[in-house]
């Protein structure tokens, strides 16, 4: 039986509030949303129901439009704020942090590869109506084909991973143009015949990320909506290739957020429930006084501060490029930021994996009980950090440090 048929714990409503007016207020709003998600994050993870209510929570809170233009009701915020918001939400629920991060990425994708007219149309559409993005985009799958019908494109095939698609309003489709190596992106309404979700996301972690597959049959899109194309010819810019650095920095935000959530949960557990070890020459009255516990948490807290500081710096560097005029970005400028993003990503992943695994050493055997739920943090980081091999990010940084080589833009660099 599909896990999506199970009854899910309710997510509390979050509506009727004034939209935040500045970056600090948006971060406060994210904390309010995180507090709601944290109430039953473990129970919702165990139930494994489609995150329809959670997406509505994001929409009601307006976090979904924080990057949108002010003239259409958006928050007009910068990516520095968006990265912090993703971290805050991920600390409470990594799956929902992923959904939000991917949505914000795809909402910005029109700016990455679209024409000026397409950017204006997409941003007005999603912001004014507060629509949620999912995507059927997986570059390792070449089995979604776009056929040229003259004024339209016809999409047929499948995608293995479509994070957020089954709970979205708008779906980004990516397919190879039939008979060529050219890839095209188009945005279509999700609720239509021809789009079927396979409901096959049954993985170790990120269980509420709605990342199962999709079957695409006879879905049409106007050629005029093919991102970056004018008269069926793609108009390239170096800026187009920021898609990979941007999504990779979103990944870092997710990992660091999950690690912060894990550390906070472990500290609370140790402070209130972990028992001291009596079989020692220097017994303590509480676990919080034990040397190995203090030393262990000191190491984890320091490492996470360090990883976050690197990510903060790269957030600012990447945001400066993202919010600058698109035509100004050079190939070398793009390469420099890609190396910095690769460094931040591998440090974030390593630190999050260590944090989420080692907390059990300082919480104790009783903390492995399923009703405690500390396992959710490691499962989530372990699952998502396998998206693409972190070793290749280390190699990119090593090639730059040793040989002065910059990453060549690709689907993963």
From TrEMBL:
Please list the GO terms describing molecular function. 3-methylbutanoyl-CoA dehydrogenase activity; flavin adenine dinucleotide binding
Would I find Ribonucleoprotein among this entry's keywords? no
Q: Which ranges carry the Acyl-CoA dehydrogenase C-terminal domain?
A: 250-387
* Gene3D superfamilies recorded: Acyl-CoA dehydrogenase/oxidase, N-terminal domain, Butyryl-CoA Dehydrogenase, subunit A, domain 2, Butyryl-CoA Dehydrogenase, subunit A, domain 3
GO biological-process terms attached to the record: L-leucine catabolic process
Alphabetized UniProt keyword annotations: Flavoprotein, Oxidoreductase
The record, for InterPro entries, names:
Acyl-CoA_DH_C, Acyl-CoA_Oxase/DH_mid-dom_sf, AcylCo_DH-like_C, AcylCoA_DH/ox_N_sf, AcylCoA_DH/oxidase_NM_dom_sf
Q: Determine if rRNA processing is one of this entry's keywords.
A: no
Name the UniProt record assigns to this protein: Alkylation response protein AidB-like acyl-CoA dehydrogenase
Q: What is the originating organism of this protein? A: Paeniglutamicibacter cryotolerans
């Amino acid at each position: 039986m599909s896990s999506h048929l199970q009854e899910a714990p309710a997510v509390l409503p979050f509506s009727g509030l004034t939209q935040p007016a500045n970056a600090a207020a948006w971060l406060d709003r994210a904390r309010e949303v995180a507090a709601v998600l944290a109430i039953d994050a473990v129970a919702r993870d165990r139930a494994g129901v489609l995150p329809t209510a959670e997406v509505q929570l994001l929409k009601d809170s307006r976090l979904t439009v924080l990057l949108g233009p002010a003239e259409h009701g958006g928050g007009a915020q910068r990516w520095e704020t968006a990265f912090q918001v993703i971290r805050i939400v991920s600390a409470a629920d990594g799956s929902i942090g992923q959904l939000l991060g991917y949505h914000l990425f795809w909402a910005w994708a029109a700016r990455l590869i679209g024409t000026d007219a397409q950017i204006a149309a997409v941003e007005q559409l999603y912001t004014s109506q507060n629509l949620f993005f999912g995507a059927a985009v997986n570059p390792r799958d070449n089995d979604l084909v776009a056929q040229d019908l003259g004024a339209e494109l016809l999409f047929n095939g499948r995608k293995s991973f479509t994070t957020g698609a089954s709970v979205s309003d708008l779906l980004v489709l990516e397919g190879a143009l039939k008979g060529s190596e050219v890839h095209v992106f188009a945005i279509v309404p999700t609720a239509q015949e021809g789009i079927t979700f396979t409901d096959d996301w049954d993985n170790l972690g990120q269980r509420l990320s709605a990342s199962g597959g999709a079957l695409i049959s006879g879905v049409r899109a106007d050629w005029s909506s093919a991102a970056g194309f004018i008269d069926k010819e793609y108009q390239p810019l170096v800026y187009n290739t920021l898609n990979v650095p941007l999504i990779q920095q979103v990944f870092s935000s997710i990992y660091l957020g999950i690690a912060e959530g894990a550390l906070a949960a472990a500290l609370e557990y140790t402070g209130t429930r972990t028992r001291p070890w009596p079989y020692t020459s220097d017994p303590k009255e509480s676990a919080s006084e034990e040397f190995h516990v203090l030393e262990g948490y000191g190491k984890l807290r320091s490492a996470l501060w360090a990883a976050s500081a690197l990510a903060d710096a790269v957030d600012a560097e990447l945001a400066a490029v993202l919010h600058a005029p698109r035509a100004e970005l050079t190939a070398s400028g793009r390469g420099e930021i890609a190396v910095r993003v690769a460094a931040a990503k591998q440090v974030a992943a390593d630190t999050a994996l260590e944090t989420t695994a080692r907390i059990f050493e300082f919480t104790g055997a009783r903390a492995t009980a399923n009703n405690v739920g500390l396992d959710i943090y490691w499962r989530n980081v372990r699952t998502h950090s396998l998206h693409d091999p972190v070793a290749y990010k280390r190699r990119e940084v090593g090639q730059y440090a040793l040989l002065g080589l910059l990453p060549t833009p690709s689907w993963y660099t």
